[in-house]
Amino acid sequence: MTNHAAFAAEDAVTAVPPPAQAGRHFSSFPPRRARDCRKAALGRMDLAASGVLRGGSLLDSMKASSPRHAKFAAGADHEDWMEKHPSALEWIEAVVAAAKGKQIVMFLDYDGTLSPIVEDPDSAVMTEEMRDAVRSVAQHFPTAIVSGRSRDKVLNFVKLEELYYAGSHGMDIKGPTTVSNHKAKADEVLCQPATDFLPVIQEVYETLTAKMEAIPGAMVENNKFCLSVHFRCVDEEEWDALGKEVRAVLEGYPDLRLTKGRKVLEIRPSIKWDKGNALEFLLESLGYAGRGDVFPIYIGDDRTDEDAFKVLRNMGQGIGILVTKFAKETTASYSLREPAEVKDFLRKLVMSTGTKG
Ligand SMILES: O=P(O)(O)OC[C@H]1O[C@H](O[C@H]2O[C@H](CO)[C@@H](O)[C@H](O)[C@H]2O)[C@H](O)[C@@H](O)[C@@H]1O
């Protein structure tokens, strides 16, 4: 397969399915009191490891996030890569065996994992079948959605109130809003380490929205504690101009950092808090920190999910699963090709483990 073919396949957006129905409510896992995440987020950020886009060509970074330009896009290395990152679906028995006797805790990214990538971020709905699969997983194991989207937005897509949600790349974490007797309990924010940044994020959102009007196809999404500048629908010849414009705006805001995702530049507070911290925080909140009998599974498709994969790798517990059709640099140990395979994996996991967690 040529690199161009790889690009076309990976980036082909998916037709938007019809809107889904709201899910049922049922019991969940009450969170325990967690450490103060604001204090933890003040720790020193490892800029080298944080994926922060600093010096060098921003255009190169933007291209690198596009499979057409990616080093490992396709070709002879793919088989080798699959040996190192085998299909979690094909190896489900090995996964179940590794988790045997342990408490599985499920972490799921949203875009590209539970919903296919589409051109319009507001149309990235998930199918009712996927919702059923996630609902079923949450009946068996504590389950969290960890997304770059704002928490409200991702809840609005997933529509399952019995889950934990970590929005804004983990900077807005909240527990379930339903309990076993189906009565709503008071909303309880568990962790918001970046509240001080809300005014500045809003200011940058307004500035960037005005600037991006000049670039056809560009779009700025407000994800509450962070912003996404989308360039999926921007002509590639305009990417350089877009990147320079974003960087110029950020020069006035040294407390914000720029990272990249799938055809998106992401602006977030320069605090030491990412999806990896969110995973650790949730494990701690659930009372699982430091326990050897816990088996976290994190499934995600993007660069930002690598922070969580690294945490699992360092813990030496559980598994990271990268959703991709192409060989990519990753710390995940398994792979799945697309959201449809994620759904099948979730279903099989529930069937294979059988008992309630
Ligand atoms: O952490 P995630 O849940 O994966 O969120 C990451 C970003 O996802 C969304 O953008 C991506 O999906 C869009 C819809 O398929 C697509 O149009 C876009 O090109 C992708 O980058 C979301 O819109 C962003 O705000 C999230 O940061």
UniProtKB/TrEMBL annotation:
Cofactor(s) this protein cannot do without: a divalent metal cation
Matches recorded under Pfam families: Trehalose_PPase
Pathway membership, UniProt: Glycan biosynthesis; trehalose biosynthesis
The reaction(s) this protein catalyses: alpha,alpha-trehalose 6-phosphate + H2O = alpha,alpha-trehalose + phosphate
Hydrolase as UniProt keyword: yes
Root EC class: hydrolase
EC number: 3.1.3.12
Recorded GO MF terms: trehalose-phosphatase activity
InterPro entries documented for this protein: HAD-like_sf, HAD-SF_hydro_IIB, HAD_sf, OTSB-like, Trehalose_PPase
Function of the protein: Removes the phosphate from trehalose 6-phosphate to produce free trehalose. Trehalose accumulation in plant may improve abiotic stress tolerance.
PANTHER family: TREHALOSE 6-PHOSPHATE PHOSPHATASE, TREHALOSE-PHOSPHATE PHOSPHATASE 3-RELATED
Protein name from the UniProt record: Trehalose 6-phosphate phosphatase
Organism: Lolium multiflorum
